[in-house]
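re: that chain from earlier
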Amino acid sequence: MFGWGCGSGSAKVGFGAGAGWEGADCSQCVFLRTYEEKPVCMHDAKGVDRGADAQAQLLLRERLVMLGQLTATVSHELRNPLSVIHNAVYYLRRRLAGENCLDVKSGEYLDIIESELTASNRIIDDLLSASRIQPPEYQQVDLERLLQKVLSDIALPPRIEWCYRPAQASFTLNTDPQLLCQVLRNLLVNAVQAISGEGKILLRVRVSGRGVDLQLSDSGEGISGDDSARLFEPLFTTKPKGNGLGLWIARDMVRRLGGELSLVAGELNGACFRIQLPCGDGGMI
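^ sequence. v structure.
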């Protein structure tokens, strides 16, 4: 995948053979250098010029580069006050509870503040993930233990039933646990937000000679056909408070692991996201 942002891992842009890159022998095309230092031609496989598409993509990349330049400074400036607010909430909760003054209404408002703090920190994490592209760090990962960690981080509300169907055969993934953990966390948070009232989230895992297949379904309202076509575009969102980065980042992370993230038909009535991780050096079972 491309790395967009400032500093190491950024993509560089060149035009035609004059860009001076080895292999950039097309005189009419735009070339993008990936973090792997490989020039990528913006023609399709048949050599048809996609000038309009390339221009639109370059405009989008410019926005993402600006996003990357702002992220480090803005994240630092926001983390400090959020940390102060979190400490203040912790102090107030303990102080009021110790004096037997923590009534139900006060507790609810403190819960709201903590919930919004968590949401704010998640936005900052998404921004940081969007601006930093690092090669995966592979290691042996137990999927069930990783899931337990993700679920403990999210704390599913009691109104939502969690259903897990493990693979019939035991296996261990050779993958980057941090990347996969963030992907599953983003998808689970989206699933919870998609369910109003009581509902169900189902994760089904299957293993074959080609790799591991994870499908996460929810019983929410689902995703319309028009929205599904743009679902993985950066900065596109259907949520009032969404930033349009979560799914784009999740798919980028899965692809960096050598796999693919897609929207498919699921067993429940809502959305279903499929994570495919391959066999081989990256994501080997």
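Residues 51-98 form the longest helix (48 residues).
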